[in-house]
Amino acid sequence: MEELFGDASRGGEWAAVRLRVDGQRIVAADAPGLDRDLAGLTLLEAAAVGGETLAVDALANAIGPAVAAPPDPARVAVAMSGGVDSAVALLRAGPAAVGVTLRLWIDPAGPDAARACCSPSAVLEARRTCHELGLPHVTLDLRERFRAAVVGPFVRGYAEGRTPNPCVRCNGAFRFGELVAFADRVGASRLATGHYARIVERGGRPALARAADEAKDQSYMLATVDPALLERLWFPLGGQTKAQTRAEAAAAGLAAASRRESQEACFLGGGDYRAFLERAGLASAPGVVVDESGAPIGAHDGYWRFTPGQRRGLRVGGGGPLYALATDARTNTVVAGPRRALARRRVSVRGRLEPGTRRVDAKLRHRSPAVPASVVATDGGFELLLDSPAYGVAPGQAAVLYADEAVVGAGVITAAA
Question: Which residue, 117, 152, 338, 361, shows the most beta carbons closer than 10 Å to its own?
Answer without folding.
Answer: 117
